[in-house]
Design goal:
This protein is mostly helical and about 60 residues long.
Length: about 60
């Protein structure tokens, strides 16, 4: 189920993504927005297409945002 997949990804990666985005942006509020958008984009992805490289995918999305 998509919600379970995204929730598990959030539980596992949110903290490190927030730190990463905060270092890039220098602004905690902007970093929160970036991480939120990354998870919104994850919601629209096919789980089988990203699950093997989920961490890489999320960090790449954060960097690009």
């Amino acid at each position: 189920m998509r919600a379970d997949f995204v929730r598990a990804a959030l539980d596992r990666h949110e903290r490190s993504l927030l730190g990463y985005a905060n270092r890039i942006t220098g602004d905690l509020d902007a970093a929160r927005d970036v991480v939120q958008e990354a998870f919104v984009r994850l919601w629209s992805q096919d789980e089988s297409a990203v699950s093997a490289r989920l961490g890489e995918w999320l960090f790449t999305v954060c960097r690009n945002l």
